[in-house]
Design a protein that fits this description.
Elements: E1 5-9, H1 19-27, E2 39-43, H2 48-59, E3 63-65, E4 68-73, E5 76-85, E6 89-92, H3 94-100, H4 104-126, E7 138-142, H5 150-160, E8 166-173, H6 176-182, E9 188-196, H7 213-234
Parallel strand pairs: 1-9, 2-3, 2-7, 7-8, 8-9
Antiparallel strand pairs: 4-5, 5-6
Helix pairs in contact: 1-2, 2-7, 4-7
Length: about 240
């Protein structure tokens, strides 16, 4: 496991212009994965998609989405008791369930609600395309940053269940302690910048406006066109 990072005080780190600029900087740290047929770039929608688009373009790898929805505790939705993810994966924190005595029925009720949004996003973004087969491949999970890392942590657990050979987490910016924690659950963690103090992901972007569903679809379709064009040129 490795943890490449560019640690610096916050006063010496300037924010990224936007997510795509951040993606290009991050891509430069992932060059060793370029041109390989066993690598898949997985974006966490929505903010991770513009970042992942630039990486997939730079290293000539397939781009897909990996939708993760946190399962919040009943009455305390900000506190995660688990997550559901693309591919029909459900991850539950057994310790939290036992400690708070949460019933299976309560878990199922929250999961049903989040599943509706997950399926909506899958329909919106995939348009009937199946998820990329991850078995035996290197999956690079990408988001626009890591603060507490709870969503990405759930994504790593869920992706592991789909049988990849390696799981890499790559983000443009992250809290130093959070990036450090990920070395225990990934094969490689790449945080391009780890400013201290960190505060929040959005502070490290001049433009941190919400990524829209339309933008997600457009970037996925644009990358797919580029892949088709490159493959036809090689024939």
């Amino acid at each position: 496991m490795s943890f490449p990072q560019a640690s610096a005080s916050s006063s010496s780190v300037s924010p990224f212009a936007d997510r795509r600029v951040a993606g290009r900087e991050l891509a430069s740290m992932l060059r060793k994965y370029a041109g390989r047929d066993d690598v898949v770039v997985l974006a966490l929608p929505r903010g991770g998609v513009p970042v992942a688009f630039e990486i997939a373009e730079a290293i000539d790898a397939p781009l897909d989405i990996f939708v993760v929805r946190k399962l919040g505790m009943p009455g305390h939705p900000e506190y995660a008791m688990g997550a559901i993810a693309s591919g029909g994966i459900r991850v539950i924190s057994d310790d939290v369930i036992r400690w708070y005595g949460i019933s299976p029925a309560a878990i199922d009720a929250v999961a049903r609600e989040e599943l509706a949004e997950l399926e909506r996003r899958e329909r919106e973004y995939r348009r009937g395309r199946p998820m990329t087969d991850l078995r035996g491949r290197t999956a690079i999970l990408v988001d626009d940053g890591l603060a507490t890392g709870s969503t990405m942590r759930a994504a790593v657990q869920a992706v592991r269940a789909l049988g990849p050979a390696r799981v890499v987490v790559a983000v443009p910016v992250g809290a130093p302690s959070t990036c450090e924690e990920f070395t225990d659950i990934t094969d490689e963690t790449v945080c391009a910048r780890t400013p201290e103090p960190f505060s929040a992901v959005g502070l490290w972007y001049r433009d941190f406006s919400q990524t829209t569903d339309d933008e997600v679809r457009t970037l996925l379709e644009e990358h797919a066109r580029h892949v088709r064009a490159r493959s036809s040129n090689h024939e």
